[in-house]
Design a protein that fits this description.
single chain, 1 helix, 11 strands, about 5% helix, globular
């Protein structure tokens, strides 16, 4: 599945060498055994953050966005809902932090929601604001691998 405006389709090469490194990493059989935190793949070009958390209602969170990296969000165990919207024009909740490549944006109405189950991934480009970690049906513990791919 790929959802993106046609106007940005040529800006995102989801089959580039950096993305192929991300996909190869996610095909490892030991994802549930990786240590939490940063796991190296290719320096600052491609790396993985291993996270564990309990999902929360979407209304308790805001959208996040990044300027320098794509997010390849892979659910290793559990399930969650993610919401997303085009970042352009959204009100800022937390200003962009260049060190952490992160800002928070106000969630618009309506917003698009997708369900991710164990073994599934979603890719968010820098123009995509996204809200991971939301409860799908009931609060669930999630182990997620977020591979950061330099834009």
């Amino acid at each position: 599945m790929l959802v993106t405006p046609l106007s940005s389709i040529t800006d995102n090469d989801y089959l580039s060498e950096r993305f192929r490194k991300a996909y190869t990493f996610l095909a490892r059989p030991d994802l549930c055994d990786l240590p939490l935190g940063r796991n190296e793949i290719d320096g600052d070009e491609v790396y993985a953050n291993v996270l564990e958390y309990d999902t929360v209602p979407a209304a308790e969170k805001e959208l996040e966005a990044h300027h320098d990296y794509y997010d390849v969000q892979y659910v290793a165990s559990g399930e969650e809902m993610l919401q997303y919207a085009t970042a352009d024009g959204l009100a800022t909740v937390q200003a962009y932090d260049a060190v952490d490549d992160y800002c928070l944006l106000k969630t618009p109405e309506p917003v698009t929601s997708i369900a991710l189950h164990a073994g599934e991934l979603a890719i968010f480009a820098p123009e995509d604001a996204h809200k991971p970690g939301c409860t799908l049906i009931e609060p669930t513990h999630v182990r997620k691998i977020v591979v950061k791919v330099r834009a």
